[in-house]
Amino acid sequence: MSEGIRRRLRVNPVLCDGYGYCAEIVPEVISLDDWGFPIVSSGPIEGDDLLRLADRAVATCPRLALLLENVAPDTH
Amino acid sequence: MDVLKKSGLRGRGGAWFPTWRKWAAVADSSDGHAVVVINASEGEPLSAKDRTLISFRPHLVLDGAVLAAETLRADDIVLYLSRGTKDTELTLQRAVKERVRAGLAEPPIRIVRTAHRYIAGESSAVVNRASGGPSKPKFTLQRSAEKGVNDHPTLVQNAETLAHAAMIARYGAEWFRKLGTESSPGSTLMTLCGNVKHPGVYEVDLGARLGGVLEAAGGTVTPAGGALLGGYFGSWLPPNLLQDLPLDVDTLRSAHGASLGCGVLAVLPQGGCAVVEAARIFSYLAAENSGQCGPCVNGLGAIAETMERIAVSNAVPSDLDRVRRWVDMVRGRGACHHPDGAVGMLSSALTVFNDHLSVHVSRQRCYGANVAGFPPPPAPGQGWR
Fold first, then answer.
1. Least CA distance to B136: which residue of chain A?
2. Residue B329 and residue A39: Cβ atoms within 8 Å?
3. Chain A contacts of B330, Cβ < 8 Å?
4. Which domains does chain B have, with CATH numbers?
5. pLDDT tens-digit series, residues B87-98
6. How close, in Å, is residue A14 to chain B by CA atoms?
7. Is residue A76, in this structure, part of any structural domain at all?
């Protein structure tokens, strides 16, 4: 398949201190656990609007613990 | 490398990953300054296999490491040891000196010590420590095969695996395959403890069944009440499975969701309580987190606290529901697999001994709590260097 590059969010759990801003910015992709730490959905982010919000979540994180990464192309 | 691939050797540190693939990944990135780390830290409290192997055959382990260094074009060999294992260290120091005196043309072997802790043996923690940092796991986007110790491509390999590699180099892949199965060839070291007549380290054929392994240890003292296979990150097994269970890695995984892990088999005595043992082990693992990742620090702590109450029957059914929910919540959310291993062990206990759990959440007394079962977990370690 020759779609554009698919991206997903990932959290560096060592840096993350559970500020929780990310879950407010992209609740579609990030929820918080019982202790306020983010649970990030592992699938690729669908749509440009959501991708823009994901980008803002990355930029907003006070710990710089969030990153957008390319999803490895399907090998099968 | 070709022989290693044909031999089908898989890593004995716990993950059973094909060794040749691990070597190939390092070889691909090696620029002549790769690093080979002999992981002999053996942080698993119930395991004694690496220590035992080293006390009998230190040079076999070192031979394997040198062989890896030659194959991967490495110029740094690190011997990674836990502090407080004096005999092992002295044996290896003597062996290293003997090699230097014999004038062998091989890279220098340096010893790196770590605090004796459960996760100090985790691959990224090993790399961190061997690079001069603390033995805490690290969050990385690059694999250590590409960027490991001091940013060089690095092979982190369990001591026993290297010994097997040395034997394969000497006697060939076909010789190695005389024991074991198609997907799990060879023999492996297992540590047996708990309810067995002769606890200790045994070399077993991977083609064997668990009943045969128990027999080699003189059988059980009292009829088995179940067992924990694979150490503190392992899986609980019900008593009726023990006799016929194959050791083959793929069969264990597909049919029982279990793994040999680091080769520990801890057998529960008749009337012993797996819920109590699992809670005890879980508390140790929770205390042994490296204090880095929120989900692990908070999640394991909350689960441990609740499990401690469940173990002494001071709990209600909703406590159990919360534990199950938290188990799913923390899985896969650390920088390393510490939380995954801990909740994997616990959830197998909750599944296999589900029928018994009602006793623990209805304020009934569990008589198994007083049956001496496994060797108790050690006190959590101190420091990270």
1. A14
2. yes
3. 33
4. 2-176 (3.40.50.11540), 188-267 (3.10.20.600), 274-370 (1.20.1440.230)
5. 999 999 999 999
6. 5
7. no
Residues of B in contact with A70 (CB under 8 A): none
Residue numbers of chain B with a pLDDT score lower than 50: none
What are the pLDDT digits (tens) for B118-144?
Answer: 999 999 999 999 999 999 999 999 999
User: What residues make up the domain containing A29?
Assistant: 7-70
Of B205, B218, B232, B262, which is closest to residue B348 (Cα–Cα)?
Answer: B232
CB pairs under 8 A between A and B: 44
Domain count, chain A: 1
B333-347 residues labelled b (16+ CB within 10 A) or e (exposed) = bbbbbbbbbbbbbbb
Q: Report chain A residues touching chain B, CB-CB < 8 A.
A: 12-18, 33-37, 39, 69
Look at residue A2 and tell me whether its pLDDT is greater than 50. no
**Candidates B294, B299, B330; nearest CB to A16:** B294
Bridge partners, residue A69, by sequence: A8
pTM: 0.94
- Residue A46's nearest CA partner among A2, A3, A1 is A3
Q: Give the pairing type, strands B74-82 and B109-114.
A: parallel
Smallest Cα–Cα separation from B179: which of B162, B164, B193, B192? B164
- The answer to whether residue A55 scores a pLDDT higher than 70 is yes
- Of B347, B346, B316, B343, the residue nearest B330 (C-alpha): B343
In a domain, A66, yes or no: yes
Inter-chain residue contact B139 with A14, CB threshold 8 Å: yes
What are the chain B neighbours of A36 within 8 Å (beta carbons)? Answer: 294
With CB atoms and an 8 Å threshold, state whether B302 touches A16. Answer: no
CATH number at residue A21: 3.30.70.20
Distance CA B30, CA B38 (A): 18
In a domain, A16, yes or no: yes
- State the nearest Cα–Cα gap between B314 and chain A, in angstroms: 23
- For residue B297, the one-letter residue type is V
Predicted confidence band at A3 (pLDDT cuts at 50, 70, 90)?
A: low
Largest CA distance in chain A: 40
